[in-house]
Design brief:
alpha/beta, TIM Barrel, Elongation Factor Tu (Ef-tu), domain 3, 2 domains, eight-stranded antiparallel β-sheet, 24 strands, 25% helix, globular, protease, RNA/ubiquinone_mod_enzymes
């Protein structure tokens, strides 16, 4: 895939609900993935989509020339097979652009029930080599979402043997300490089965170590930092923004995928915007990893790692974060502009006279203005908003507004839907 290649790499973003789907698309994703029901491996995210809103999301994407891939990537029990058949048929009726499937039996079932819908093989199928890739390709799989443990070298090898098979890799988001998500800890401790979409993230909890004397049965706690315990399983988050050039140079990768259907609206927008910039920069011959990283570090994260794509797992000593389950990003999101662009909702304490950076979808125009409600101005390529007055939709005026307040706040000028207002955290 050289710079002049007509087929550009696809950017695929998570869509946990209708708003996040729209945000991801507005901010630069070429395609999104999401699902309805417990067959989609993200119960908590999936609950936010019902059939109607999912259909609306697919229509929204299609009207903008973007794609939607449906997650049907759980591992079903025998008792669920009838439900699964109905679910596949129902999803096919919505005319999505692909199904993301993990189990070989479900691949075959989907081909039978919905022969026209392309199949993408989920990362849960753990494909790492040419042999497995070939089996799934022969079953009619169009694209494989590689196991996160795959190296770029192996991706190139698979592509060499099966040039028609599309390859998709993860470039950003939560990592799992188990092999590509095949884990039972949450089921054992919480009765929440990870591969049925309701993982409780037990790997992120604080654990305490004890040693036991087998003769006396005495248990002694191994001291860690008081009250904190230790994070023994907590993987850092994947972040490959600095490696987009290497990934695209190799020519073997068709799509870059971002993890995070249960993450915030700001995460959906900011990751899509940043990776889309990195991809477009690549095709223009520009490379600015510091800028991408600065943006991505505005997000809450568990520390970042470049995972296993560039180096082998046994060479890695920095993929775990033993100190905290999640840390704040370098920025705080203060507001999110609604769909009509006239008002924003407060997400964090917002005051008059304070400059808030405007983070908007790509390729939109922002009008500079100065009136009694506030001022929008530009400074070194960035736009800022200062409110002179905080006036709510119900015309009430406040000196400042806090995150618990659900009343929309008037903007001095219309901003693009789903624009974010942010400030640097101290």
């Amino acid at each position: 895939m050289s710079h002049n290649s007509s087929k550009k790499v696809q950017l695929l973003s998570p869509a946990g609900n209708l708003t996040k789907l729209k945000i991801a698309i507005d901010y630069g994703a070429d395609a999104v993935y999401g699902g309805v029901s417990h067959f989609s491996l993200r119960n908590r995210a999936g609950k936010d989509f019902n059939l109607e809103s999912f259909k609306e999301g697919i229509d929204y994407a299609h009207s903008r020339g973007k794609k939607v891939f449906v997650t049907i990537n759980g591992f079903p029990f025998n008792s669920q097979l009838k439900l699964l058949e109905n679910h596949i048929a129902k999803m096919a009726d919505l005319s999505p652009d692909a199904f993301i499937v993990a189990a070989p039996g479900v691949v075959r079932l989907s081909k039978k029930i919905a022969p026209t819908i392309p199949i993408h093989l989920s990362t849960q199928a753990n494909v790492l080599n040419v042999l497995d890739a070939e089996v799934f390709y022969e079953m009619g799989v169009k694209r494989i979402v590689a196991a996160r443990e795959l190296s770029l070298k192996d991706a190139i090898e698979i592509k060499k043997y099966i040039p028609d098979l599309e390859l998709e890799i993860f470039v950003h988001g939560s990592m799992c300490f188990a092999f590509s998500g095949r884990c039972l800890i949450s089921a054992l401790q919480n009765g929440r089965v990870p591969n049925r979409g309701s993982c409780a993230n037990d790997c992120r909890f604080d654990y305490e170590y004890y040693v036991k004397n087998p003769d006396s049965g005495v248990m002694m706690r191994l001291e860690e930092e008081e009250g904190v315990g230790t994070h023994i399983f907590n993987s850092k988050d994947l972040n490959l923004a600095s490696y987009v050039k290497e990934i695209l140079d190799c020519g073997a990768i068709d799509a870059l995928k971002i993890e995070g259907r249960t993450k915030s609206t700001y995460y959906a927008g900011l990751t899509a915007r940043t990776y889309k910039m990195a991809i477009e920069d690549y095709y223009k011959g520009i490379y600015r990893p510091e800028f991408y990283q600065e943006e991505l570090h505005t997000l809450k994260n568990r520390g970042f790692t470049d995972g296993y794509l560039i180096r082998r797992p046994h060479e890695r000593l920095d993929t775990q974060n033993h100190f905290s389950a999640i840390s704040e990003g370098s920025y705080q999101v203060n507001g999110e502009v609604g769909e009509n662009g006239k008002y924003f909702l407060c997400k964090y304490t917002t005051k008059t006279g304070c400059p808030y950076e405007i983070v908007a979808p790509r390729n939109v125009e922002i009008k500079c203005i100065d009136n009694e409600i506030g001022k929008i101005y530009q400074e070194n390529e960035k736009f800022y908003l200062i409110l002179n007055k905080i006036i709510l939709e119900n015309n009430k005026e406040l000196p400042e507004i806090h995150s618990g307040n659900v009343n929309p706040v008037l903007l001095p000028e219309i901003l693009p839907p789903y624009t974010f207002l942010r400030t640097k955290t101290n």
